[in-house]
Amino acid sequence: MWIVAIAWVYVVVLMAATEPTVIGGIMTFLFYCAVPLSILFYISGTKQRRARRMQQERNDRQDGNGG
């Protein structure tokens, strides 16, 4: 998935570079690259965050019962 994200960033940077104004380039980069990729990475990491939270809860319960 990382290679696809890197390729997408490359494409969007080239798109932003061809915009007639700097503001247009920044907006193109934000709305075509930064926001969609951040949403994608947030959604794809949900399972890992849940597993990490459950492991932390198990550790907390074991620490509380053990001593």
What features would you describe in this structure?
The mean pLDDT is 90. Helices cover 90% and strands 0% of the residues. The chain is elongated, with a radius of gyration of 20 Å. The chain has 67 residues and is mainly α.
Topology:
Blueprint: H1 2-17, H2 22-44, H3 46-66
Helix content, binned percent? over 70%
Q: How many DSSP H or I helices?
A: 3
Structural category:
mainly alpha
β-sheet strand percentage? under 5%
Which spans of ≥5 residues are poorly predicted at pLDDT below 50?
A: none
End-to-end Cα distance? 43 Å
List keywords for this structure.
mainly alpha, 3 helices, 0% strand, 67 residues
Short description:
The chain is 90% helix and 0% strand. The protein has 67 residues and is mainly alpha-helical. It has one domain.
